[in-house]
Amino acid sequence: MHILFKDLASRGTISFRERLDLSGDLPKKGSLLNYGPLEVALEAHDKSGAAEVTGTMSIEVEQACSRCLTPVREKLDIPFHETFVRVEPQDLPDEDDEEDDDVEYVTEERLELRPYLLESVMFAIPYVPLCEEACQGLCPVCGANRNTEACGCKQDKVDPRLAGLADFFKDQT
């Protein structure tokens, strides 16, 4: 998926409706177990030589719950808004001097959108996925899923620095 700046300037608006396979781009490891294709609906507008790209993307992802490891499927609807300005290589602003963080400067006549779409998807994937807000997770002693079964494991945790103090109160009663 790409934009040619000359083509955009002559047409004014270009619409994209595509389905992208990200199987080579997104990892299937860690909490990300599976994902579907990326549905893209974008429009590029010529704004005085700049390309303003807006629209939405959607993708279904399956992740492991961060507490109980149960697979969680979720559809992510991701808004997309980027402005691209074509400049000559010698006119690229320094990273320190960038006065507008909302603008991406590119040096090529052809703008490849895939890396920017992928970046938006990566930022939209939940960092701590949960099957439900009240998920109780796994028992740290026996590993049982506490959402489905109650285990009888003793989980009294005493700070070893205060263990002597606990013994002191046992003698008081």
Automatic annotation (TrEMBL):
Domain of life: Bacteria
InterPro entries reported for this sequence: YceD
Any one Pfam family match given in the protein's UniProt record, by short name: YceD
Protein name: DUF177 domain-containing protein
Species the sequence originates in: Paenibacillus gyeongsangnamensis
